[in-house]
Amino acid sequence: MYRIRVFGDPVLRKRAKPVTKFDENLKKTIERMIETMYHYDGVGLAAPQVGISQRFFVMDVGNGPVAVINPEILEIDPETEVAEEGCLSFPEIFVEIERSKRIKVKYQNTRGEYVEEELEGYAARVFQHEFDHLNGVLIIDRISPAKRLLLRKKLMDIARTVKR
User: Fold this and answer.
1) Could you tell me which InterPro entries the record lists for this protein?
2) 35 annotated active-site
3) Which CATH number goes with the domain that contains 55?
4) Domain around 52
5) Distance of CA 163 to the CA centre of its chain
6) What is the tens place of the pLDDT at every residue in 89-120?
7) Which of 79, 81, 116, 130 is catalytic?
8) What domain count does the chain have?
């Protein structure tokens, strides 16, 4: 199992590098990430959240775990919806985030094969949330400055726990 990196850890702000090796190490890392995600009752977990600055994440929106490697969002539906999101890197913080209802995506699986699919609703939301992590974008970047100010004390408390 991995330790979850929390707000204040610099790895969360880096743009992750593409995965180039589809080997046993990657598969083992993904298995550990899935175990970690389930342990913390998450529905998604991006590599930067466990200190790995590479472009992949795992998610499970009810159909079993999926590994998403080198993802791209090909199309974003202009229709959006607002819903509450939490994040394992922001313990006990939940915020309303506006995201596209439907997206078309392309990514690689653990064998390096390309997968293209359309996601909507909850699956689209989780994909967009984890995709943000690969670009160093966090949920607090998607809320208003006023809401961020209201969370300032909680955020500072979380940042104080970061192991330097």
Assistant:
1) Peptide_deformylase (IPR023635), Peptide_deformylase_sf (IPR036821)
2) no
3) 3.90.45.10
4) 8-160
5) 21
6) 999 999 999 999 999 999 999 999 999 999 99
7) 130
8) 1
